[in-house]
Amino acid sequence: MPTGRVKWFSLEKGFGFIANDEGEDVYLAATSLPEGVATVKPGTKLEFSIADSRKGPQALSVHIIDAPPSLVENSRVNSDDLAAMIEDTIKMLDKVGNGLRHGRHPNAQEADRLGRVLRGIATALGA
C-alpha cells in the first residue's frame, strides 16, 4: 500500500491532501479516515489505497501509521483558532436552522459534516 504524509486537512471543509512518497498530491476525504478519527494533523504519516477519480488520485482505506510528535502533551487548541472554529460552526448551524424553517432537512453528507465539526470542537474544548 502507498504511504505519505498529510499536507493539510480542514475539518470544516471535510477534506485535505496527502503528499505520497512519490511526490504526488492525493485527495483525502474525511470519510476515508479511520472510524472515530475526525481530523488529522499536517505531517501525520498515513498508509492508504488509491483510486483514480475524475479529479485525480483519491485516498481510500486510510490507516494512521505515525502521528507527528506533540510539543506539549494534552495541549489546548489556540484560543483564537478555537473561537474562529466556533464562529464558523455557528454560521453552519444558522444555515441548517434556516433550511429547517423552510422544510429542508440537511442531506446525509451535510449532516455527517456538521457532526464531525461538532465532535471536533467538543474534543478541542475537552482537551
TrEMBL record:
Name of this chain's protein: Cold-shock protein
InterPro entries: CSD, CSP_DNA-bd, NA-bd_OB-fold
CSD domain: residues covered: 1-64
The species this protein was found in: freshwater metagenome
Pfam families to which the protein is assigned, alphabetical: CSD (PF00313)
GO molecular function, one term: nucleic acid binding
